[in-house]
Amino acid sequence: MTAQMLQSYAATLNAMMAHTTDKLRSSVDALANAEGLPPDIADRASMESGRNFTLLMRERDRQALEAIREALARIEAGEYGICEDCGENIAPARLAVQPMATLCVHCQGLREEDRRPSVDAASGFFQI
Ligand SMILES: [Zn+2]
Q1: Where's the DnaK suppressor protein DksA N-terminal domain (predicted)?
Q2: Which of 21, 32, 67, 73 is deepest in the core (most CB within 10 A)?
Q3: 9-13, long-range: CB within 8 Å, 24+ apart, which pairs?
Q4: What spacing in Å lies between the alpha carbon of 101 and ligand 1's midpoint?
Q5: How much distance in Å is there from the Cα of 39 to the middle of ligand 1?
Q6: What is the pLDDT of residue 46?
Q7: 19: CA distance to ligand 1 center in Å?
Q8: What is the 9 CA–ligand 1 centroid distance (Å)?
Q9: How do residues 1-32 score in pLDDT, each as one tens digit?
Q10: Ligand 1 centroid, distance to 90 Cα (angstroms)
Q11: pLDDT 10s digits, 88-110
Q12: Cα–Cα distance, 29 to 105 (Å, whole number)
């Protein structure tokens, strides 16, 4: 990977970090402003689900921020764009869409297969 490519990934990651930090900050404000319960029960319910949604989004943003920081650290360490599992280079096209990627397409696919419940276990229900 060229220094120029690394620089452009770092720029993308830094922009993502600024954006995500902003989003996190405004969600903190949204939660702080949501003090005081409205008298109507339906309003309360919708406020509650809005609050849960905000908390969920915050958790996702927090995780994204962590992944961005780790990616920037890998750039610093000269380990950026190398698959964690097989040590091969991650395709530039993949990094362009997902600059925080730690796995090549192949290994990512293998991990997703692992997470899927196995077909054998499911078909066991139908064996008599
Ligand atoms: Zn791999």
Answers
A1: 8-75
A2: 67
A3: 9/71, 9/75, 9/80, 9/81, 9/95, 9/99, 10/72, 10/75, 12/99, 13/68, 13/71, 13/72, 13/75, 13/99, 13/100
A4: 11
A5: 55
A6: 86
A7: 29
A8: 19
A9: 889 999 999 999 999 999 999 999 988 787 77
A10: 7
A11: 999 999 999 999 999 999 999 99
A12: 38
Whole-structure pTM value: 0.75
The label of the residue with tokens 């869409």 reads 97
Centre of ligand 1 to C-alpha 44, Å, is 48
> 27 C-alpha to center of ligand 1: Å?
36
Please, what are the domains in the chain?
Answer: 1-79 (1.20.120.910), 81-128 (no CATH)
For residue 8, how far is its CA from the centre of ligand 1 (angstroms)?
22
User: What is the mean pLDDT of the segment spanning 70-79?
Assistant: 96
> Confidence band (pLDDT; 50, 70, 90) for 34?
low
